[in-house]
Amino acid sequence: MKTRVTITMDPTLVAQAKSLAVARRTNLSAFFEELVRRASASEHPQPRFSQKWLGKVQAKSADPHDELLTALQAKHGLSGK
After folding, report:
1. CB 49, CB 39: distance < 8 Å
2. Sign of CA dihedral 66, 69, 72, 76
3. By C-alpha distance, which of 4, 62, 46 is closest to 28?
4. In degrees rounded to 5, what are phi and psi of residue 37?
5. pTM for the structure as a whole
């Protein structure tokens, strides 16, 4: 269930907010909800995928006779080291 909130804003900002909401094909309430969600997420960022899994997975050694690996290394200009 949603809660009704009353806010006081400069009339120019209200007009800008309404225009932005219309441009995003949403209503003013949903527009402000999204702004608050994004602001909250930016203050508490989630760790990147690579940071989350760092040290938890080990890659096995590549088979030097793997034809696919050799072809991909040649295609992308990588050495087999």
Report:
1. no
2. negative
3. 4
4. -60, -45
5. 0.51
